[in-house]
């Protein structure tokens, strides 16, 4: 390969909160390769890319792109130099059409007006050349996630990017869409483009990448050829120890019915039925996985059950009692715990300490008091025990939660919700964006809970997680139950994908199971 | 561990730097406009210490500031920018006047009822904007600011129409009954038993914020309302609760100021103590235990400025400028941010080596 298109040399970055996000990281990318950048979340991948893109300043190090130093350039100059980025969260204007999004900021002019014809032609040409089939006149808000990603790619290509950075592009895609994306990426590579592919999914990386650079805790672990490394080796590099990506669990012993949801319907602010006539039941000792492409009502389903909204309709029978329209406090008291989808906005308060976050749901408990007043001793004893039990890495329990890594922040949430000793746990994306070590830990805890005869409603966009943990699986598509499978072992990722995309659907009577 | 303690000093250091810089600016201004700058400055800096009476002035002046400082801490703890403490302080003194002049009870009982009435009136006042926010999504900043004018004119209406002493030329009320006052504690000063009520309030607020689940909950609501809701807290009740308690302290402060310093109601407008409370809360870093220091600092500055303006050619308006400078500097997060970052980086590297 020889000729390097990009060389980032000894990059160091320390954030204002004291997190050393990158430490002497060196990344060399050869022309015309697909180079994977891997690492647990919080390993420093995103920071490194932000530095490359000029969004973050670095504290030391140098960057050479295409033979020229790009130190200290602005993002606009870097785009002009030929680097393009497809962000994990798309940067598109939903209300505009596809071609309008593509030309935003680089409009071809005809006098003072935008040359619409030329713009549309540009999009058409690029679509054709790279096999990215999108209708230039479609409105972005009407597109699926997969198509939006294609628009992002076209946008980057329209700016003549030689080097494309894709930040976890498959996180939001179905297996089928992922397959399509991979074919497009290989086509791009064949056309002489270089791609940096950020991911922590080892299987995907093995499939399409030439080389892998692994970061761990901000430092470079090493760069290796994909062909010469096994999945186990890569995984070992990422976490620094052997991790079983498979989960061993005892066969499930279902008990009596714990939760029964009947005809649950919830209309969101846009008057869309985000949850549409959903019925299912969950037994003691059962992990029910809810699969689905994100945004198909899984989050709203969880929030309805946990009392976030007061205008949902239907029935949520928990141990025979209807929880619909109950207050969150009463739902918690009834024995339900919830790990919310977004830990930073909902799961924790980042500006306050670990202990304050750990006691949030039990501050009224008499166990934390001496003579009616809060006892710091008792609170700290409890929080220290939780920190030990749940292996939360922090300086001490007075540290601000915002200073912790994603995985440890999530462990704070998990510690609080599990230690409430719930009969039903709703885990909404419990391991999103956290390192493999924390991931494995949380999985183990969830299975422990099941083995104690508790019920778990597991919502995840990660099919691997659904398949590894769930005893039964329910697929949601467009707010409805698209399929229910009593035995998860009979399902494959591929088949679940068909239900997730709405290509297959069971009759509603099946989902009553 | 060494840098960690250094880090916690940065906040305190920043306050000191802000105060130091503002004093420096004062010196420069004094040197420019005064014919006898050294004398004026020494009056300003050391004047309050030259006699017991003057030092008494500092203490007296700090009492209302402590009340409103505490009120602001409570009001803002829950994350709302409720500025009704100004009106609450005023209406508290009006309510206390009304009750003390209407009741015909033994003096101590009258006084107790009047103080209680001040607290209740203040609590209701501060609750109004918050209730409007919770029930109707009304902007607290706007409603509370407007409410202050309502308080002022409603209060004046009550005093002028029902309690005005016709023998006085101004809008003064009748004199309070004999014994309806907060007694002096020390001769030569006007320091009165109001300061004991004030200290009690500081202790109560400290306990409330640090030792009760109510204090914990309003803090969490202020830091992340979404998380507080998800944890099972009733946000509406909590923010209204914190407004009521904050308002009660402001209202009580108005009543204490009235019975400690005056023999009749004689405010002619809003006192400004509510606004000062914001400054106190900032300087005290939102902590009840630091309120006395912040209030004493401001009171000391005011007393010094007062002495300076009487003895020299510097106008007392100067102190308003100094106050403004202090507010700006203290609220400027960027002061010492370079130093803070350096400490953080140092700490990060150390813990890296430790690991």
Topology summary:
The complex is a heterodimer of chains A (513) and B (355).
Chain A: E1 4-14, E2 20-30, E3 34-38, H1 45-52, E4 60-65, E5 68-69, H2 75-81, E6 83-86, H3 98-103, E7 109-110, E8 113-114, H4 116-129, H5 145-158, E9 163-167, H6 175-190, E10 194-199, H7 202-208, E11 211-216, E12 219-225, H8 231-239, E13 257-267, E14 273-283, E15 287-291, H9 298-305, E16 313-318, E17 321-322, H10 328-334, E18 336-339, H11 343-347, H12 354-358, E19 369-370, E20 373-374, H13 376-389, H14 406-419, E21 424-428, H15 436-451, E22 455-459, H16 463-469, E23 472-477, E24 480-485, H17 493-500, H18 508-511
Parallel strand pairs in A: 3-10, 3-11, 6-9, 9-10, 15-22, 15-23, 18-21, 21-22
Antiparallel strand pairs in A: 1-2, 1-4, 4-5, 7-8, 11-12, 13-14, 13-16, 16-17, 19-20, 23-24
Chain B: H1 2-33, H2 37-46, H3 52-77, H4 85-102, H5 107-136, H6 140-163, H7 194-211, H8 213-223, H9 225-230, H10 235-261, H11 273-283, H12 291-311, H13 317-331, H14 337-354
Helix pairs in contact in B: 1-2, 1-13, 1-14, 2-12, 3-7, 3-10, 3-11, 3-12, 4-5, 4-6, 4-10, 4-11, 5-6, 5-10, 7-8, 7-10, 8-10, 11-12
């Amino acid at each position: 390969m020889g000729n390097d298109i990009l060389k980032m040399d000894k990059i160091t970055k320390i954030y204002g909160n004291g997190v050393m996000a990158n430490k002497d990281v060196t990344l060399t990318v050869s022309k015309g390769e697909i180079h994977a950048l891997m690492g647990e979340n919080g390993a420093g991948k995103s920071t490194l890319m932000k530095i490359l893109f000029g969004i973050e300043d670095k504290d030391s190090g140098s960057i050479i792109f295409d033979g020229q130093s790009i130190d200290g350039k602005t993002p606009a100059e870097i785009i002009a130099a030929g680097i393009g980025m497809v962000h994990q969260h798309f940067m598109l204007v939903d209300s505009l059409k596809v071609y309008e999004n593509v030309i935003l900021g680089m409009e071809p002019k005809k006098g003072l007006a935008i040359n619409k014809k030329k713009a549309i032609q540009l999009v058409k040409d690029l679509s054709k050349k790279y096999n990215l089939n999108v209708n230039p006149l479609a409105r972005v808000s009407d597109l699926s996630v997969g198509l939006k990603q294609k628009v992002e790619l076209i946008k980057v290509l329209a700016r003549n990017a030689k080097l494309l950075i894709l930040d976890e592009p498959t996180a939001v895609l179905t297996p089928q869409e992922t397959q399509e994306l991979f074919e497009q990426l290989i086509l791009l590579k064949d056309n002489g483009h270089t791609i940096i592919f950020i991911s922590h999914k080892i299987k995907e990386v093995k499939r399409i990448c030439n080389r892998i650079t692994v970061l761990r805790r901000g430092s470079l672990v090493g760069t290796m050829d994909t062909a010469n490394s096994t999945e186990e080796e890569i995984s070992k590099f990422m976490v620094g120890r052997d991790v079983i990506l498979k989960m061993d669990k005892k066969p499930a012993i279902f008990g009596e019915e714990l939760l029964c949801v009947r005809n649950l319907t919830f209309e969101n602010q846009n008057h869309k039925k985000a949850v549409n006539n959903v019925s299912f039941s969950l037994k003691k000792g059962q992990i029910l996985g809810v699969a689905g492409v994100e945004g198909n009502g899984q989050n709203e389903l969880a929030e309805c059950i946990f009392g976030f909204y007061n205008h949902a309709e239907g029935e949520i029978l928990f141990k025979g009692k209807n929880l619909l329209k109950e207050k969150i406090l009463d739902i918690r008291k009834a024995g339900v715990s919830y790990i919310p989808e977004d830990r930073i906005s909902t799961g924790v308060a980042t500006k306050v300490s670990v202990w304050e976050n750990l006691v949030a749901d039990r501050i009224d408990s008499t166990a934390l008091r001496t003579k009616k007043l809060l006892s710091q001793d008792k609170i700290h004893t409890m929080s220290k025990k939780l920190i030990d039990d749940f292996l939360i890495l922090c300086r001490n329990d007075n540290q601000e939660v915002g200073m912790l890594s994603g995985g440890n922040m999530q462990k704070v949430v998990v510690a609080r919700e599990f230690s409430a000793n719930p009969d039903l746990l709703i885990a909404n994306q419990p391991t999103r964006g956290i390192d493999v070590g924390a991931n494995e830990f949380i999985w183990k805890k969830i299975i422990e809970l099941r083995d104690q005869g508790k019920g778990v409603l597991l919502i995840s966009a990660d099919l691997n997680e659904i398949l590894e943990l769930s005893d039964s699986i329910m697929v949601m598509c467009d707010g409805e139950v698209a399929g229910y499978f009593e035995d998860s072992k009979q399902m494959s990722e591929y088949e679940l994908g068909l239900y997730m995309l709405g290509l297959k659907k069971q009759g509603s009577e099946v989902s009553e199971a | 561990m060494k840098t960690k303690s250094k880090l916690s000093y940065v906040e305190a250091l920043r306050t000191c730097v802000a105060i130091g810089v503002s004093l420096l600016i004062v010196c420069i201004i004094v040197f420019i406009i005064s014919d006898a700058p050294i004398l004026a400055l020494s009056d300003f800096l050391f004047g309050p210490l030259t006699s017991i009476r003057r030092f008494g002035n500092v203490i007296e002046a700090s009492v209302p500031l402590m009340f409103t400082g505490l009120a602001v801490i409570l009001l803002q703890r829950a994350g709302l920018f409720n500025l009704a403490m100004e009106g609450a302080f005023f209406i508290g003194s009006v309510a206390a006047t009304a009750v003390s002049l209407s009741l015909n009870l033994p003096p101590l009982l009258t006084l107790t009822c009047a103080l209680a009435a001040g607290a209740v009136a203040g609590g209701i006042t501060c609750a109004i904007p918050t209730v409007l926010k919770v029930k109707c999504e009304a902007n607290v900043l706007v409603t509370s600011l407007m409410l202050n004018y309502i308080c002022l004119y409603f209060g004046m209406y009550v005093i002028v129409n029902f309690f005005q002493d016709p023998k006085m030329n101004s809008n003064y009320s009748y004199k309070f009954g004999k014994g309806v006052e907060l007694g002096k504690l020390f001769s030569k000063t006007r320091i009165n038993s109001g300061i004991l009520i004030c200290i009690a309030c500081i202790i109560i607020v400290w306990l409330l914020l640090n030792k009760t689940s109510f204090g914990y909950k309003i803090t969490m609501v202020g830091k992340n309302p979404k998380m507080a809701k998800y944890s099972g807290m009733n946000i509406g009740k909590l923010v209204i609760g914190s407004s009521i308690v904050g308002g009660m302290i402001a209202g009580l402060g108005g009543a204490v100021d009235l019975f400690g310093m005056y023999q009749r109601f004689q405010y002619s407008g809003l006192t400004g103590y509510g606004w000062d409370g914001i400054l106190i809360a900032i300087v005290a870093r939102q902590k009840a235990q630091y309120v006395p220091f912040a209030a004493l600092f401001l009171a000391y500055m005011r007393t010094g400025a007062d002495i300076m303006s009487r003895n020299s050619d510097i106008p007392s308006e100067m102190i308003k400028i100094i106050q403004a400078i202090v507010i700006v500097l203290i609220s400027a997060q960027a002061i010492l941010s370079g130093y803070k970052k350096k400490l953080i980086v140092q700490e990060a590297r150390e813990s890296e080596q430790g690991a």
